[in-house]
Amino acid sequence: MSDEKNKSDQQKSGVSRRSFLKASGISLGVPLVVGHRVINVNGQEVKLYGPTKTSITLTINGAKQTVEVEPRVTLLEALRHELDITGAKRVCDRATCGACTMIVGGKAVYSCTVLAIEAQGKPITTVESLMQGEKLHPLQQAFVDNDGQQCGYCTPGFVMACKAFLDKNPSPTPEEVQKGLGGNLCRCGTYMGVRAAVLQAATMHKGGKNHG
Amino acid sequence: MAEYKWPDADKRTQIGKRIARLDGAVKVSGKAKYNSDLNRPGMLHGKVLRSPHAHAKIISIDTSAAEQMPGVKAVHIINGVGFEIRWAGENIVAVAALDEPTAEDAIRAIKVQYEKLPHLVVDHDLKIAGEWATPTNESKKGDYEKGFAEAEVIHEGVYGMPVITHCCLEPHGSVTEWEDDNLLVHLSTQAVSGIAAQMATPMEIPAGKIRVKQDHIGGGFGSKFGPDAWDVAGAKLSKKAGGKPVRIFLERDAELMVAGTRPSHYAKVKIGAKKDGTLTAWQSESWGSGGPNGSGSPPLPYVIDIPNQSRKHVSIANHVGPSRAWRAPNHPQACFVTMSALEDLAAKLNMDPLEFVLKNKALLGTRKDNYADELMLAAEKIGWKKTWHPRGDKTPGPIKRGLGLSFHTWGGGGHASDCDLVIQPDGSVEVRMGTQDLGVGTRTALAIVAADTLALPLEAIKISIGDNRFPASGGSGGSTTIGGISASTRRASLDALDKIFEKAAPTLNAQPAELEAIGGKIQVKGDASRSLTWAQACAKLGAMPITVRGKNPGPGPLTSQGVGGVQMADVAVDIETGIVKINKIVAVQDCGLIINLKLTESQVYGALIMGVCWALYEEKINDQTTGKTLNANMEFYKLAGIGDIGQLEVHMMTGKGYDERGVIGIGEPPAVSPGAVISNAVANAIGVRVPGLPLTPDRVLAALETKGGR
To answer: What CATH class is the domain A138-206?
Structure first.
């Protein structure tokens, strides 16, 4: 829904979320968690969630997990606060910096700008999945070897962006690394290490080692 | 009694090598828990209502609707009726609720009436500043009028750089909770040992009842030395909510509006020299703002001690979120103004700026020979002789290439630091210290110093930091951490080793003074046949561990202060679009004895990259009409990306002449020059000075249009 549309809806109805809750008679006496409803829009059945907490199922690193969140909760916050999966970080909170990067349905996404309910039914891969037992993924090892991190707050997102990048382009040139990873920002200034790490990981891949 | 000095170069097994950070694996795997990652049992989520006005008085606050909301557990008024707000984003009311969305709803339900007052949020023009501008510094040296009379060439210029923010990726904040009448604070902080004392007064409890913990911090850069008003509010909300943990971490807009800035700096400069390049006089009238407390007074002229000087500084106290220490406070500003003026004068003299600086080498202070060495080395690495040209690239086409140079200094002597080194009878070793690792590699440095001293592998040393129950160590500011923590750890390790020597000596039929630690063994010096393994030697302790306290004694063989560095930049400027691209930056830097070469180089790379950010992109844009910050987000408060930094080359000066100075900090000095060096390279490329930072396309095009005039 565009902002314009949003605004006109509000103007028309003059109803805020709170007053809607009140008017709907939803109070403490009613269970706070409900499922979705199905409504018909232009002949198609559409699931309608909210505005109260709703139960959703996410497939995270291969495991199905159920959480109860309001529809406005992002994928990032559902993982961080409801499931204590905190590798991905909230930094810009509007799809600029990449600290929240996860791989959803095979694509790197800014999870701060994906609603948790939208991520249902798609495989969600986070940085927590990369290690095999105590062994770092070759890409993670390359970050350590090349010091591609300082404070480390951008690092989990950067690692996932690099993972998605290398999955698509296993043998990038240095120029491709600089273009392909422009969606992640670091404040400490670790880009030299990240560049070297991606190229090292790519080389290891070429050498026949498991890329994960 | 041990002699407290660093081992000779040929005896160092870990010190000075390239060693990967010990916490690399936990960070890269997402296992590292930052305080903003904590989900404590029963944790409530706090939010802060902030002022929309830059200058106003609070007339009334109505929190009743918020308090009655289901899920809201506590409301705390931070600044009440009658309070004078002095910047947009100032804290007013904090709430704690079961979840974040509810806390946001509660904030929106609070009604505050303000009486708006006149505000000032811009700072580029002293005339606009009016009564909010105050002269803070006026000084003279020599006779500047005589100096200018002697000058054969005089340059006058105006230079400026705006307010920027720290933009820590982990925002400021904390999780606070009560255990009976004890307060536990998980704060994102640069000063683990210093927080309890600062929090005791507002909380009205003894500092001894406040525990502070932090395993990792997501950036500080000078902005995280104290508990903030929202942290105190969090603790008060927690109290009201029966001690439940309350999490308050700033939203990105608040982070950019209220959690620290670097003051702006503008200066009118007049500088004179003889035709042969001998500098004779400096005059500057500078001003800057850093929020309600005004700006500091950057040390002009910077590093180069021009014989005759007159300088005045005016501080503007305006209605912008307050400044905080920002990586090398006052130095980037002074450096940008001074190096720009020097380069402009060199251009007017038709001199190569490298020759010009070397001509005035005598003015570069006690480390002038180091600067000269560093200048020559940087020149070689950037290809100065081959690529530098007089101002204005005359090659055809819109892309103009240029070179620039800059140099800088910083103190960086070690702060107060206590270290407990614990050795168990089974040989295990632990370093305990109330310090913090800002990502610079503090943990790794501690392990290197202890391991090298005790002749053990790095993995043998357990590092315990980030808790104010450990021995106190200073805040990480002023590049003072590495000097402090390495000195105290070296002393603790040497003293501990003496104790082990005492215990081992009888078994080895030797005097303690005849023993040495080498390769995991305690042996009679030079005689490997008379040795005990480390574990065998420690077993002589009996049942009880020993704890040895080491202190940083202050300046001496272990740590001193004063470093220098030189940077040179090679840039390409498109004179049709105004876009500046970094081809290469070379940094040559000294910092005494280096503990870990790999992470020291990382500090310099990081400083260069942060420098590219503020040289080319960063500016906190404040709107005088509304008093608001227009770009309190990361789309429009821009940082450099991985493709924006060109090629970077770092060279650390080490060995004889450097190592003897002991360990000195490195975080700040290389962050001083980037704005100056990039601006100088741009001037060399396009033939005119772009007088202001950041070097955005509009500023570059405007400078070309006006031939460098304002």
So the answer is: mainly alpha
